[in-house]
Amino acid sequence: MLDLDETLVHSSFKPIESPDIILPVEIEGNVCNIFILVRPGVSSFLKRMHKHYELVIFTASLSKYADPLVDIIDPEKFCSYKLFREHCTWLSNAYVKDMTRLGRKMTDIMIVDNSPVAYMLQPENAMPIVSWYDDPQDR
């Protein structure tokens, strides 16, 4: 399982210099542009990992933003499933990603995520990653 925001991409409602993607999203009847930077190497990472693992995006973001964004960053559909905020559990004032919702054996699941709160229910299945915002030299 892969987190989206600050793991694969960084998004902002404020314009950023040289965004990789500008995604229009309707929010409360208004169309807002979301400015997105894609972490270097995401495409090749997904392609390589797809050969060895079933890839699932699990984000606490709203599907109306995350669903079209994943379609853009993963046009070859290397990710088999997408789980969004509505699939999270609201716990301790946070959206928590309960990995049992995928219906797989927990011994076969790992999540790559920058937020320990997100995987607090199954910390033993997490591979923490440093938050990414805009470093073009990131590897």
Describe the structure.
The protein has 139 residues and is α/β, with parallel strands linked by helices. It has a single domain, classed as HAD superfamily/HAD-like (Rossmann fold), CATH 3.40.50.1000. It is 14% helix and 29% strand. It is built from two helices and nine strands; from the N terminus they run βββαβαβββββ. The chain has helices spanning 42-50, 63-73; strands spanning 9-12, 21-27, 30-38, 55-58, 79-83, 89-91, 94-96, 111-113, 126-128. The protein is globular. 25% of the residues are buried.
Output the CATH class name.
Alpha Beta
Radius of gyration: 15 Å
Q: Are there runs of 5+ residues with pLDDT below 50, and where? A: none
Structural domain count: 1
Could you state the CATH homologous superfamily? HAD superfamily/HAD-like
Question: What brief labels describe this structure?
Answer:
Rossmann fold, alpha/beta
Topology:
Elements: E1 9-12, E2 21-27, E3 30-38, H1 42-50, E4 55-58, H2 63-73, E5 79-83, E6 89-91, E7 94-96, E8 111-113, E9 126-128
Parallel strand pairs: 4-5, 8-9
Antiparallel strand pairs: 1-3, 2-3, 6-7
Quick overview:
The protein has 139 residues and is of the alpha/beta class. The protein contains two helices and nine strands, in the order βββαβαβββββ.
